[in-house]
Amino acid sequence: MTRKKRRLYMLGLALLGLGSATALALTAFQDNIVFFYSPSQLQTQQVGDRNFRLGGLVEEGSVKKQPDGVTTVFRVTDTAHTVDVRYRGQLPDLFREGQGVVAEGRMTGGVFVAREVLAKHDENYMPPEVSEALKQAGVYKNPADSATKTAKKE
Amino acid sequence: MIPELGHYALVLALFVALVQSVPPLVGAATRNGAWMNVAVPAAIAQMLLVLIAYAALTWAHVVSDFSVLNVVQNSHSAKPMLYKVSGVWGNHEGSMMLWIVMLTIFGAAVAAFGRNLPPTLKARVLAVQGLIGVGFLLFILITSNPFIRVVPAPIDGNDLNPLLQDPGLAFHPPFLYAGYVGFSMAFSFAVAALIEGRVDPAWARWVRPWTLAAWSTLTMGIAMGSWWAYYELGWGGWWYWDPVENASFMPWLAGTALLHSAIVVEKRDALKSWTILLAIVTFSLSLMGTFLVRSGILTSVHAFAVDPKRGIFILVLLAVATGGSLLLYSLRAPTLKAGGLFAPISREGALVLNNLLLSTATATVFIGTLYPLFLDIMKLGKVSVGAPFFNATFLPVAIPMVVAMVVGPFLSWKRADLGAALSRLWVAGVAVVIAVAVTAYVKAGGGPLLALVGIGLAAWAFVGSLVEFADRIALFRTPFRNSWNRAVHLPRSAWGMTIAHACLGLSILGMTGTSAWQTESITAMKPGDRASVAGYEFRFDSVGLVDGPNFKAERGVFTVTRDGQRVATLEPERRSYSTTRMTTTESAIHTTVFSDLYVALGDPTQNGTAWIVRIYHHPLVPWIWIGGVGMMLGGLVSLTDRRFRIGAPERRRAAGKTGGKSAPLPAE
């Protein structure tokens, strides 16, 4: 095989690899992308039966354990609107009222049934989507302002 | 005083790094020996200065000097000593210090042991290392100075994030960083070679040990991180395809490709320009990993609160390093002479396939990780990409890769016979059939079809790699003593390859087992309650209060029995750290090597008499990490190969043959 021919083969193979990666990615994106909505966006958004992420603050005083002991209901708010959430399972260690939360799941009969509540490693951490959503609702306080005293943690 | 000394040493290190980079570059261009030689003492001086700075910071942490902001924010007088030391790198500023420590140690190692390197190459490698050092020292001094004082000094500190107070995570960052930073050596060698305009087998032989070392430590770092997530986060998952995890996985994939393509450069003098590109890409991905973790722009289960200014700085650093080196590549790569020819079915061909698949895999992970960011910047909505995407894109690439991985070592260089290679693998084929049949029979339709593929793949990788080794030492074909002799005299790199490839099979076994057949139970349990999971009975005996050095804990006691026989007592804890007001879950795990029994104690229920208890049965899960450790060992064994002794290869010798008596030995 000549050098030129070999280079051509290599180029072809590389393109094949890149092409298949893109094709795989694009087909996978169609089914597996999870959108993020704030409670306000949910008012206008048709979500149907799809899986999505909901983010906002856990409303103060809304967290209630159900009698079975493992199900928790709470409300997620961006202060303009709220959404009822139900989650069966153990909440992450840093789940707290008044703090930011991101949950993944779907709407069932007007209630957001969470499959997963995302954990955080750090109590000052605010998922970027949540701070964005709060900014849009006009109630965002820069956590850095309130956190300068409590000091940021790694 | 001591923190100021540290700060001063760090500033000095910045200037020494400048001296390490600029004069040697000029000297190498003008063939001025004196100017080039500056790089060697400068690299060693830079390392010593950075070590002094690091020691000063460690001192402040160990003696709990609360006049230093970094100590106040991340330490507490009651914190155990292990975490006082590991807490140094358990925060942003300190972890960047650790990064630069690693960088300068690698640089000094080249300076000290690279006596046989051609002077211009050595000067340029050290100069590029110096430039990376300049970038990171500036970053630390401008945005993340760890030596800032607070006046007045508080009485005690805020304590380290409790999730990080764990032996698994204490040593996770050093390994991970040694890996990331180790790839900077491959990068420096690549850029130096581009400036030189010359890549040859000797070059590859200098680059390979560094890449191997970096790859091994990165493998260990990722394995430790995944193990930590498994037992500390209390969810029992070992990999989430989370952006922060992907950030460490992408350099690993690219580094694995680099490791293999460097073999082709070394043995056959081919794929040179591709290998250079891979070296650049691998280190760029390491930098990008740092950027993703440190900037906090992606939502991640592992994310920490961060300062956006730092993210921008690293982004600029990334742009300069990647952009600059790619520009140099585009100018210089066409001048690199292409080397040996080979047929598509050959060892080279197999390694090209390996590289192609690994790059494709890297690309899919890259697309999935950065796509949400892309959409966000384009204002097209907020999305996240999770495990289903990666399973759908990564697995179709990974599966053929593992299949080919076993066949590749059977092929000879230049031209090979695929049929002959496959026929030598019949034992592995039989093993696959048996493994799949047994699994299908035992599990009788339980679990997805993909699980059978996984089990078959694991058997293929493990048995196939051993068959290759047996074939090489002519096991059962010559008297055993003879085979033993061959095994002893086989190059260490061959041993390393067999170990690493076989252990990948073990990891696949673990991943498949736990993904397909894990069982879990989440219930509210009162002391005295029983739960039954996977044939084991868990009795919740009691809950007691325990006092730790800087936490209080509720400790549950569970007795596990099977068919009336006592199996284990598990004591999961729920710790409350008073200073940080955080709670952590310390799960209790009983491992039989073939499966893990896992109990995590959750929140108490409303009236406080019962607790949410998560019980898991994870079949085969320990093999994920046994395989990971094995892969690292494979890398280390390979590193002890005599050809890679640091400084051993010389260009003169390499130009002729691959070296003395190794010629008749089977190629690696």
UniProtKB/TrEMBL annotation, chain A:
<dbReference type="GO" id="GO:0005886">
    <property type="term" value="C:plasma membrane"/>
</dbReference>
<comment type="function">
    <text>Heme chaperone required for the biogenesis of c-type cytochromes. Transiently binds heme delivered by CcmC and transfers the heme to apo-cytochromes in a process facilitated by CcmF and CcmH.</text>
</comment>
<dbReference type="GO" id="GO:0020037">
    <property type="term" value="F:heme binding"/>
</dbReference>
<keyword id="KW-0201">Cytochrome c-type biogenesis</keyword>
<dbReference type="InterPro" id="IPR036127">
    <property type="entry name" value="CcmE-like_sf"/>
</dbReference>
<dbReference type="InterPro" id="IPR004329">
    <property type="entry name" value="CcmE"/>
</dbReference>
<keyword id="KW-0732">Signal</keyword>
<dbReference type="GO" id="GO:0017003">
    <property type="term" value="P:protein-heme linkage"/>
</dbReference>
<keyword id="KW-0735">Signal-anchor</keyword>
<feature type="topological domain" description="Cytoplasmic">
    <location>
        <begin position="1"/>
        <end position="7"/>
    </location>
</feature>
<dbReference type="GO" id="GO:0046872">
    <property type="term" value="F:metal ion binding"/>
</dbReference>
<dbReference type="InterPro" id="IPR012340">
    <property type="entry name" value="NA-bd_OB-fold"/>
</dbReference>
<keyword id="KW-0479">Metal-binding</keyword>
<keyword id="KW-0349">Heme</keyword>
<keyword id="KW-1003">Cell membrane</keyword>
<keyword id="KW-0812">Transmembrane</keyword>
<dbReference type="GO" id="GO:0017004">
    <property type="term" value="P:cytochrome complex assembly"/>
</dbReference>
<keyword id="KW-0472">Membrane</keyword>
<protein>
    <recommendedName>
        <fullName>Cytochrome c-type biogenesis protein CcmE</fullName>
    </recommendedName>
</protein>
<feature type="topological domain" description="Extracellular">
    <location>
        <begin position="29"/>
        <end position="154"/>
    </location>
</feature>
<keyword id="KW-1133">Transmembrane helix</keyword>
<feature type="signal peptide">
    <location>
        <begin position="1"/>
        <end position="25"/>
    </location>
</feature>
From TrEMBL, chain B:
<dbReference type="GO" id="GO:0017004">
    <property type="term" value="P:cytochrome complex assembly"/>
</dbReference>
<dbReference type="InterPro" id="IPR002541">
    <property type="entry name" value="Cyt_c_assembly"/>
</dbReference>
<keyword id="KW-0812">Transmembrane</keyword>
<keyword id="KW-1003">Cell membrane</keyword>
<feature type="transmembrane region" description="Helical">
    <location>
        <begin position="207"/>
        <end position="229"/>
    </location>
</feature>
<feature type="transmembrane region" description="Helical">
    <location>
        <begin position="277"/>
        <end position="305"/>
    </location>
</feature>
<keyword id="KW-0472">Membrane</keyword>
<dbReference type="InterPro" id="IPR003567">
    <property type="entry name" value="Cyt_c_biogenesis"/>
</dbReference>
<dbReference type="GO" id="GO:0020037">
    <property type="term" value="F:heme binding"/>
</dbReference>
<feature type="domain" description="Cytochrome c assembly protein">
    <location>
        <begin position="89"/>
        <end position="295"/>
    </location>
</feature>
<feature type="transmembrane region" description="Helical">
    <location>
        <begin position="352"/>
        <end position="374"/>
    </location>
</feature>
<feature type="transmembrane region" description="Helical">
    <location>
        <begin position="620"/>
        <end position="639"/>
    </location>
</feature>
<dbReference type="InterPro" id="IPR032523">
    <property type="entry name" value="CcmF_C"/>
</dbReference>
<feature type="transmembrane region" description="Helical">
    <location>
        <begin position="394"/>
        <end position="413"/>
    </location>
</feature>
<feature type="transmembrane region" description="Helical">
    <location>
        <begin position="96"/>
        <end position="114"/>
    </location>
</feature>
<dbReference type="GO" id="GO:0005886">
    <property type="term" value="C:plasma membrane"/>
</dbReference>
<comment type="function">
    <text>Required for the biogenesis of c-type cytochromes. Possible subunit of a heme lyase.</text>
</comment>
<feature type="transmembrane region" description="Helical">
    <location>
        <begin position="126"/>
        <end position="148"/>
    </location>
</feature>
<feature type="transmembrane region" description="Helical">
    <location>
        <begin position="448"/>
        <end position="469"/>
    </location>
</feature>
<feature type="transmembrane region" description="Helical">
    <location>
        <begin position="425"/>
        <end position="442"/>
    </location>
</feature>
<keyword id="KW-0201">Cytochrome c-type biogenesis</keyword>
<dbReference type="InterPro" id="IPR003568">
    <property type="entry name" value="Cyt_c_biogenesis_CcmF"/>
</dbReference>
